[in-house]
Amino acid sequence: MKPTVKDVAKKANVSPSTVSRVINDHPSISDDTKEKVRKIMQEMNYFPNAAARNLGKQKANAIAVILPPLDSKERIGNPFYLELINTVNEAAHEYQVTTAIASAKTMEALLASVMRMYRQQQVDGFILSYSENRDPVAEYLIANKIPFTLIGRPAQQESAVTYIDNDNQLLGKQATEFLIQKGHQKILFASNVDEEVLFFERYFGYQEALMRAGLTTFPAATFTKTEDFTNFPNLIKETEATALVVIDDVFALRIIQLANLHGLVVPDDLSLISFNNSIFATLVHPYLTTVDVDITDLGHLATEKLIDQIQQKPVHGSQLVVPHELIQRETVIARKNA
User: Fold this and answer.
1) Which residues are CB-neighbours of 269 under 8 A, at least 6 positions away?
2) Which keywords has UniProt assigned to this entry (predicted)?
């Protein structure tokens, strides 16, 4: 038979209301009493009812990770989000907080889910895992002063948002510079998204590196429609590209498949560098040369800063930058005429 609050109170020689205050960490109870009651709770294997405890505190003791609309196979299968959820879950556990997921196929359904979760007090705050232009979810969170942290750089009202990010413009610049150092002069930037802030930042970094080197910059090669994939061999032929900077590891694998389909071999015909250093980077050959964005650090910091907001602690600085590291593997080779 499961022990009750009255059982714990009787053994600790205190009132049931005192046990309830200990459970809620009420400041009116001395540290000695709290320690004694908690020790007895542990000995009796007593676990307080979370719903009852949170009702008194008007807290859900839960946070949610908001995923972008899962409207493509690349997004559904992107390990970045799975790794992020795992990291946030581990960090939340340290604060005795549970983790929920907000996901949907469309932006409209995603917004409805986020609104419902917060209005029904299912969660106390959110970690927004993406940043897009004209995002109604971000607008809702900001307008209603709901605690949230963003992984990425805000597309709007930057001063009103606490965000954790890599320096994505620097990432794009350094990835491109790495290809230039290997003797590549005709370099493309390839992406399957064109609205996310990290797309613009990484593409700007690509442009900066090429302009500094006095080399030609090309319009971003965005693959958002079927005809974009069909035009791939013509694009390579017209630009005489020998290397690509690709938006992330998952899409890099798609580019490798596309190249092979048209008789181009990576890295012999096309060198390729991507971002995230996900599990896919070493699942198939050639292993991806990629930039590690330290997802673990991103998730831990996002959780920590969200908990600070929920607990109404001062949040020092609206922006936190996580370091990155370029990992050399097999998809980049030096040009023979370099």
Assistant:
1) 242, 259
2) DNA-binding, Transcription, Transcription regulation
